[in-house]
From TrEMBL:
Keywords: Disulfide bond, Membrane, Redox-active center, Signal, Transmembrane, Transmembrane helix. The chain crosses the membrane at residues 364-390. This is Thioredoxin domain-containing protein. It is a single-pass membrane protein. Residues 402-427 are annotated as: Disordered. It comes from Populus deltoides. GO terms for molecular function: protein disulfide isomerase activity. It comes from the Eukaryota.
Length: 427
């Protein structure tokens, strides 16, 4: 009897070890999911990053090797992230169930709850970005070196909030609420050198940092949650925001009006000088968002506000809708004494000395939704096919139908020639 029980325990332990080994092996590679194993995989792991792809999609093909590189690295995290993929073209019903309308669609399922992913797609950056989802809500830092390492490890894709001399409980609720948008930490021990580095002279204080913009702001209180939350929300973006597809996504959720400055070229020295002046104005007017865009960087967007044929730089006020305001007497910004001109523009706006204009392009939401989804592509392909058919019939010529390979080649060529923007669904 004892021998039988021992044998039973041995067999069970072997089975359990084999199962655990299989599971460990699986999360080190990209899992292939379909209708038979999707729900069970999402339920089995706390964090699953899913790539809904189509075999013919050029951008999906580029992404695949990056995911192969990232998978074993993410599997080694303290809280592992499993990478999986679904052939959404083959398993269309499963894709529709998960609101997939373009390829690739990327989602991270946290304890079964999906969040769409708009971050970078290169393996190294993707790993850094996804680490945010499994990091502690608030990181406690107890030395200068810990602060330095935290900022370096956080990377540049999220703003960073550090509470110096602040009790962790004062920020924990907001850290949980905005975990997907920023890094949060409290520093319990630090030197005077750190205070000089981050330009604050008393504690407690909260410092917001935007590493990619070399930008930071300071909050000395009051530390009631509503005031602290307002500071955090206002600092998801830098003081002067470069307008692009990524920042428009963040602006979509910001209720403030946008003071938009249109430049010839953001990288020019005179433009950089003006941007510094805009930061000073933004610091004194936190109820507004100050943004800028260069015609060289994004002509289509800039020309929406009548930039073509207008003297630049030009400032307008926009609420993200289909109209914008220009301030009478402040149509453009001269090169000298720009600070006074910006103050005059803001005074004119607040006094209502404005003229309402209609934009010539889409609204903010229109820009975000301007990418063509799969259903739209199908409709366009169908209409084009019908036009070709009608044309051939009217000419009474033999009908020639292109192969799938030819269609794929044409689609791929167009995709290759278009500039990739993070977060876009290209195909």
């Amino acid at each position: 009897m004892k021998t039988t029980r021992s044998s039973l325990f041995l067999i069970l332990s072997i089975i359990i070890s084999a199962a655990e080994s299989t599971r460990a092996d699986k999360i080190n590679t990209v899992l292939e999911l379909d209708e038979s194993n999707f729900d069970s995989t999402i339920a089995a792991y706390d964090y699953v990053f899913v790539d809904f792809y189509a075999p013919w999609c050029t951008h999906c093909k580029r992404l695949a090797p990056e995911l192969d590189v990232a998978a074993p690295i993410l599997a080694e995290l303290k809280k592992p992230i499993v990478i999986a993929k679904v052939n959404a073209d083959k398993y269309a019903r499963l894709a529709r169930k998960h609101d997939v309308d373009g390829y690739p669609t990327l989602k991270i399922y946290m304890h079964g709850v999906p969040t769409e992913y708009y971050g970078p797609r290169k393996a190294e950056l993707l790993v850094r970005f996804l680490r945010k989802f499994v990091a502690p809500d608030v990181v406690v830092l107890n030395s200068d070196s810990a602060i330095r390492e935290f900022v370096e490890e956080a990377g540049t894709h999220f703003p960073i909030f550090i509470g110096f001399g602040l009790n962790e409980t004062l920020i924990s609720n907001l850290a949980i609420k905005y975990k997907k948008k920023a890094w949060f930490s409290v520093a319990s021990d630090f030197s005077d050198d750190v205070m000089v580095q981050y330009d604050f002279d008393k504690i407690p204080t909260v410092v917001s940092i935007h590493p990619s913009y070399n930008d930071h702001s300071i909050f000395y209180g009051p530390f009631e949650e509503e005031f602290l939350e307002e500071f955090i929300k206002q600092n998801f973006l830098p003081l002067a925001v470069p307008i692009n597809y990524d920042t428009l996504k963040v602006l979509k959720d910001d209720q403030r009006k946008i003071v938009l400055t249109i430049l010839e070229d953001e990288s020019e020295e005179k433009s950089q000088k003006l941007i510094k002046t805009l930061k000073a104005a933004a610091s004194a007017n936190r109820n507004l968002v100050f943004g800028y865009v260069g015609i060289k960087q994004w002509a289509e967007f800039a020309e929406t506000f009548g930039a073509k044929g207008t003297k630049l730089p030009k400032m307008i006020v926009w609420d993200g809708g289909e109209e914008y305001l220009s301030v009478i007497g402040s149509e453009s910004i001269e090169e000298e004494d720009q600070g006074s001109q910006i103050s005059q523009f803001l005074a004119g706006y607040r006094e209502g000395k404005t003229e309402r204009n209609r934009i010539s392009g889409p609204s903010l939401l229109g820009y975000l939704n301007s990418l063509i989804g799969v259903r739209t592509v199908y409709i366009i392909v169908f209409l084009v096919a019908m036009l070709i058919l009608i044309r051939h019939i009217s000419k009474e010529e033999p009908l020639t139908v292109g192969t799938g390979d030819q269609v794929e080649h044409a689609t791929s060529s167009e995709a290759e020639s278009s500039e990739y923007r993070p977060g876009d669904k290209q195909d």
